Amino acid sequence: MPEPSRQLSDPQELLAGYLDHYREEILRGLDGFPEHEVSRVPSGWTPLALLKHLAYMERRWFVWGFAGEQVEDPHGDRGENDELVATESYEELKELYLAQCERSREIVAKARPSDVAARTGRFQPPKEAPTLGWILFHVLEEYIRHAGHLDIARELAEP
Predict the structure, then answer these.
(1) For a Cys-Cys bond, which of 3, 17, 94, 122 suits 65, CB 3.0-4.6 Å?
(2) Cβ atoms 90, 32 nearer than 8 A
(3) Could you tell me the pLDDT band of residue 66, with boundaries at 50, 70 and 90?
(4) Where are the alpha helices (H) located in the chain, listed in sequence order?
(5) 3-class DSSP state for residue 78?
(6) DSSP 3-state of 84
(7) What is the mean pLDDT of the segment spanning 66-87?
(8) For the domain with range 18-157, which CATH number is right: 1.10.1270.20, 3.40.190.10, 1.20.120.450, 3.30.70.100?
(9) CB–CB of 114/131 below 8 Å?
């Protein structure tokens, strides 16, 4: 998916368009990557663990956070020492990721950037609840950062 149109001015459409663009960038970056690639970075994360992390990150921010729905194990992408982990296959994680992205789109489509996240789930008092616009920007920022990480991992993995 290409970047959103340069003529787009609606903030929600712009943020949602860039989110979709970077969601696709992640999948393109993983295309052809060896499924059982060992970690080449000190933190120990793998490309599959990154994909799982992004699915859970979407769930934490949009489902548990903004919509305030209870989710089972919102930090299921992390191990005992807070490291990113994945034991699932690429196909299993890709299915989880795509389903979560679709669920996030559904939530965003029903709201406005100025809407404030639910005061249940992730943002129970005394935590401050952010607006959807803030969440969209934050999630986009996380995607941009991780797409760069994936680029570096791919470069390190190639002979």
Answers:
(1) 122
(2) no
(3) very high
(4) 11-30, 47-58, 90-109, 132-157
(5) strand
(6) strand
(7) 91
(8) 1.20.120.450
(9) yes
Instruction: Give me the chain's average pLDDT, please.
Output: 91
Q: What single-letter DSSP state applies at residue 158?
A: -
The size of the chain, in residues, is 159
Question: What 3-state class would DSSP assign to 131?
Answer: strand
Query: Residue 25 contacts by C-beta under 8 Å, 6 or more apart in sequence?
Result: 143, 147
Return the domain boundaries, the chain. 18-157
Q: What digits encode the pLDDT tens for the residues 4-50?
A: 889 888 999 999 999 999 999 999 999 888 777 767 777 778 899 99
**154: how many CB neighbours lie within 10 A of its CB?**
16
Q: What is the pLDDT of residue 159?
A: 66
- Which pair of tokens denotes residue 44? 């120990």
Q: Is the pTM value of this prediction over 0.90?
A: yes
Name residue 84's beta-bridge partners. Answer: 78
How many degrees, rounded to 5, is the angle at CA 58 between CA 43 and CA 6?
105
What CA–CA distance (Å, rounded) separates 120 from 12?
A: 23
- Please say whether the dihedral angle defined by the alpha carbons of residues 12, 6, 22 and 82, taken in this order, is positive or negative: negative
